[in-house]
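Deviation from plan, reported transparently: magnesium ion complex.
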Amino acid sequence: MIECKNICKTYVNGDVSTQAVRGISFKIEKGEFVAIIGPSGSGKSTLMHILGALDTPTSGQYSLDGKEISKMSEDELSDLRREKIGFVFQAFNLLPRTTVMRNVMLPLLFSELPMKKREEMAKKSLKYSGLDDEKLYNNFSNQLSGGQIQRVAIARALINDPAIILADEPTGNLDTKTSHIVMNAFQELNRNGHTIVLITHEPEIANFAKRIISVRDGVIEKDTRNI
Ligand SMILES: Nc1ncnc2c1ncn2[C@@H]1O[C@H](COP(=O)(O)OP(=O)(O)O)[C@@H](O)[C@H]1O
Ligand SMILES: [Mg+2]
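Because the crystal trials were delayed, the predicted structure below was used instead.
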């Protein structure tokens, strides 16, 4: 499903160039649950942006379902992101003074679906993400707890029923108990057939995945099955 061949990414800012990713290759099959782990600055987010077709590698090939990303047009890319990929990124925070429902429906903003249908999809997605209490759905997202916010972010990522879920440090600002609840939600999604690629710098969080790819200084150090 996902195939990276010798991916490199160099950022150039004026005279300074940073080699964030230096020759990474791997395949991820449908239904896998992979954690990419590494210390801060090891190139994880850079790799995740490439996997999400939000950024292109400087060299190397990235294919999704057999199609090479660099050969796709901007329109094809945005269709692909919308239809196949759900993002749970720390950087893509929820809109604070906006209701839970509206936050979850955000990816459907440009769809032609009637509002009633969108609301149905949002509710289904919220329930699926473990936020059962409908009373919360009309609260502003800044009135929720950390764990609830992360579930809303997951619900938003799931609203289009994407084949792949990409999550960058989804438990980053959560306490241990809440982060375990969120990780259990990812495991449940994986059992239901979603392919998950999750970034973390915490070994304990990576352990929830079925496969762990360790990166350091932009290269893969280890790629192990977690049984
Ligand atoms: N837009 C950018 N411009 C310049 N350097 C960047 C940019 N994004 C990331 N970097 C650098 O690339 C390296 C890898 O960063 P990143 O992929 O964010 O690592 P991680 O997510 O593992 O912390 C770091 O040295 C970082 O400073
Ligand atoms: Mg990062």
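The helical segments are 44-51, 74-84, 100-105, 115-128, 146-158, 176-191, 203-206. We consider this an acceptable substitute for the interim report.
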